[in-house]
Amino acid sequence: MENVQNYITEHRDRFLEELLDLLRIPSVSADPAYQKDVEATAKFVAQALRKAGADKVERCPTKGYPIVYGEKIIDPALPTILVYGHYDVQPPDPIELWESGPFDPVIKKAKGHPKGAIFARGACDDKGQMYMHLKAFEAMMKAKALPCNVKFMIEGEEEVGSENLAPFCKKNKKKLAADVVLISDTSIISNKVPSITVGLRGLSYVEVEVTGPNRDLHSGVYGGGVANPINVLSQMIASLHDKRCRINIPGFYEDVEVVGKKERQQMNEAPFNLNTYKRNLGIKEVDGERHYSTIERTSIRPTLDVNGIWGGYIGEGAKTVLPSKAYAKISMRLVPNQDPHKITKLFAAHFKSIAPPSVKVKVTPHHGGDPAVTPTDSDEYRAAEMAMEKTFGKKPIPQRGGGSIPIVALFEKVLGIKSVLMGFGLDSDAIHSPNEHYGLFNYYKGIETIPYYYHYYRELKEKE
Ligand code: BES
Ligand code: MN
Ligand code: MN
Predict the structure, then answer these.
(1) Could you tell me the distance, in angstroms and rounded to a whole number, from the CA of residue 168 to the centre of ligand 1?
(2) Is residue 384 domain-resident?
């Protein structure tokens, strides 16, 4: 292990340069304008895997972007780790709010990162975190100290719902056979307080369209006489929550997992400062479902949020117009036992039922995903705990996260493999936002910790 860590120290600068090169390719999976770049990124990752020492590296074609695969099997009798990550990123907009180019990485100080952070789209989510695994693997290979078999599956469609990953997994069960899926695509509490994510929320995402008159109208000539779809949509959306911030859709809470008192108490013992939270977000007060703490609201409780709303005239100056249509995109974060298909159906039926007869409503479902919880009483989890304790000098706290990685549930369903979410980002790293960044401390800490995971995992498995 000493040799592995020495190799990392010796190649620190190059490890960073390589990540910066990776961040320069704008792999935005949502926007077809970036198609060539997303494909170039797959090539970059495949080459990097090959150079690091992986065998059988290939870019597996799908109906969308390729899945990069590579492996190193040292002994079939040893445990196998399947590393999952994604090379695609979210769109950079609103671009004018970036202090430096989203695909022109710069290193500077940031909140929580006194030693500096890399500013670029994908720095934390997930190029920076995914690349740590390639560099840790390279170090173990070069130091001739790879303790386990490893398989890499790096996809390019995570940010758009991973639609082609399920068919790929179903077709390649043998190829992907492993003992654990190791993922770094989540966060820790802070650089001084390590944690391991043990739960993810599911997702149901819908778009709604409300149509009033068959064309835009003069808001004076017709105003007052017909329904304005923006007014109607606003009212409909407002009615989706009650005064206690509970969601007003019949049946929405029916399957929600009830978390026990003890577990809730433990959750709320995790270090969390509400004042710092509010200050960082520039808000005077938090808001959410009554009788739940902020930690609970953002992890074990489901949500419904408008992600975007538009319609009518939004250009310069005033145009007196009564629009024909209004739209909104709505996300619902789901918790264990809630089924995204069922929730989407409940939403659509309810939303149509509350529409006044003066408008037509269309609901279009987008991607969704199942929630997931991962065990803490397994060798797989224990290895992560030991590895982080070794490099942070502190035992990590298990914590449920609020985000979604739909493939975690899928891996369990299709491949029968449990995941470990050993992420190294911070919630304040602005993923999906302008000025996304990833701490240098976090990048290197990840690279140092991952080899210990392999080491302890093998050790624990041998004791069995
Ligand atoms: N890495 C994130 C998920 C995440 C971030 C989980 C931080 C926990 C903590 C992932 O790339 C992501 O953004 N997922 C999407 C879902 C997907 C279906 C578009 C999300 O959560 O919005
Ligand atoms: Mn991610
Ligand atoms: Mn993301």
Answers:
(1) 20
(2) yes
Same domain, 11 and 159: yes
Residue of 130, 185, 410 to test ligand 1 pocket, by largest number of atoms within 8 Å of CB: 185
Cβ–Cβ contacts within 10 Å for residue 291, how many?
7
pLDDT tens-digit profile of 390-419? Answer: 999 999 999 999 999 999 999 999 999 999
Same domain? 187 vs 208:
no
* pLDDT score of 112 more than 90: no
**pLDDT over 90 (residue 464):** no
Q: What is the CATH number of the domain that holds 306?
A: 3.30.70.360
> Same structural domain for residues 176 and 322?
no
> Same domain, yes or no, for 404 and 442?
yes
For residue 270, tell me if it sits in a domain. no
Whether residue 195 has its Cβ less than 6 Å from ligand 1: no
Backbone angles phi, psi at 459, to 5 degrees: -60, -45
Please give the share of the chain, as a percent, with pLDDT higher than 90. Answer: 99
Please write the tens of the pLDDT for every residue from 224-281.
999 999 999 999 999 999 999 999 999 999 999 999 999 999 999 999 999 999 999 9
- What DSSP character marks residue 97? G
Amino acid occupying residue 301: R
The residue whose two tokens read 């895997």 is 49
Q: How far is the CA of 320 from the centre of ligand 1 (A)?
A: 40
Q: How many domains does the chain have?
A: 2
What's the pLDDT score for residue 375? 94
What residue's CA is closest to ligand 1, atom 14?
404
Going from the Cα of 403 to the center of ligand 1, the distance in angstroms, rounded, reads 5
Question: Has residue 138 been placed in a domain?
Answer: yes
Instruction: Report the percentage of the chain scoring pLDDT > 70.
Output: 100
Domain boundary among 344, 369, 394: 369
Q: How far apart are CA 381 and CA 446, in angstroms?
A: 16
Q: What is the DSSP letter of 411?
A: I
Full residue range of the structural domain in which residue 82 is found: 2-200+371-463
Q: Tens of pLDDT along 290-312?
A: 999 999 999 999 999 999 999 99
Domain end marker among 335, 369, 403: 369
Query: Among residues 131, 168, 120, which one has the least CA distance to residue 447?
Result: 131
pLDDT band at residue 100, thresholds of 50, 70 and 90?
Answer: very high
Question: How far is the CA of 447 from the CAs of 186, 208, 394, 456, 457, in angstroms?
Answer: 15, 43, 17, 15, 16
Same domain, 242 and 329: yes
Does residue 1 have a pLDDT over 90?
no
Residue nearest to atom 16 of ligand 1 (CA): 404
User: Which ligand minimizes its atom distance to the CA of 405?
Assistant: 1
In a domain, 262, yes or no: no
